[in-house]
Amino acid sequence: MVEPKLCSYEDFPESAASCEGMESMKLDPVKSVFINDGLIYRHADGTDLRMYIIDPAPAMPGMPHEPLPCVVYINGSAWFQQMLLQNAAQLAVFAKRGYIIAMPEYRHSGIASFPAQAIDAKEAIRYVKKHSAELGVDPGRVVIWGDSSGGHTSLMAGITGEDIFPGDADPETDCRVRCIVDFFGPTQVDLMSDEHSIMDHATAESPEGRFLGNVDVLENRDLAIKAAPQTYVTKDREIPPILIVHGTKDRLVPFAQSVHLANRLREEEKEFRFIRLEGADHGSGEFWCPEMYDIVDGFIRKYI
Fold first, then answer.
1. pLDDT less than 50: residues of the chain
2. How far apart are CA 233 and CA 228, in angstroms?
């Protein structure tokens, strides 16, 4: 009997076993990724908040590898209950470029109103940094990326990384990120009804009204301004560089929402890149094509 012995792949002997009719070939391996079963990263308002990890592992789940940059990805859901794995297939492709992808859940608007979602995103960043060794993450190379309401949450969490919100569970742990990627996120919800859309953005029953605490959005503009990421963009605040991507035919989040953010960033002399996707709808395929992967990858690597 051969005793088990832990060794590296390079030192492990190749089998010499053979049989008649056996074919032998050598193929080029492709990068594989693994998605965990979902861990609990936080408990708030009586709810366990989950996080899925996509790991571009070299061979087998759980095998150690060199620390990789981490993308904390916030899925859009109109601030309702998230489907955490809805973008997993696309993000798995992106992970093969050498990123750990963390997909955390936030408290949805049926549980808690603003700023609970941003607080949860910041706690997710802290969790990734505190557990970087076991997750295979380089804690100094963490970025945040989100789409739709997840884009809004990513902007809020990334821009206010140095701020402490009431309800922060671990304010002592750093939650700053190196850059932010915003795919078609709302920025000032009381202005969403000023543009063409196929849905209600103003009443207390609208996604925005529920997000603000089940209130009429247009009658609570002061609250809407507090929930606007650009409100926190000032010259004396250090803001991570931001990539904004939005389609010109977005039927749910008007394109002008990204224009409002870009104008404020420019006024306050902050670093950003704004891409206007001609004819693209809300989350349409243009956002997940190889050219867009190149753009996002290039932007992130510039700052990590």
1. none
2. 10
pTM of structure? 0.91
- Cis check for the bond before 171: say yes or no (omega within 30 of 0): no
What pLDDT digit, counting tens, does each position of 14-66 carry?
888 999 999 999 988 777 899 998 899 999 999 999 999 999 875 555 666 78
